[in-house]
Amino acid sequence: MGLKYLEQTKSVVLTVLVLLSITLTFSIWSYRPHYETVEKADSVTVSMESKRQLSDVVQPYRLLLHKDGMWTGTADTEEMETTFKQLKKWELSDISPVSNNFSVAKLNDLMLLDNRMIFQFDSEVPMITFQNILPMSAKKVPEVSFDHLIISWSSLNKDDVPTNELTVFFSNSKQKQLYRAKIMVKSEKNFENNLLANMKSFKQYVPFQRENTNTLFLPVETQKMAQYKYLISSISIEDFKTALFVNPKIVKMSPDNQTGIEKYSDDKSIMTVDRNLYMESFVDSTATENQENIQKTHLISNTFNFINEHAGWTGDYRYSNVDYNAQSVDYQLYIENLPVYETDLGTTKIEVYWGNGRIYRYIRPTYKLAYLPQEKNKQVELVSGEQIVHKLMVDKKVDFNKITALRIGLTMKKDATRSSIYLFEPTWFYRIDDVWHAVKQKDAVVGGDVSGLE
Question: What pTM does this model have?
Answer without folding.
Answer: 0.84
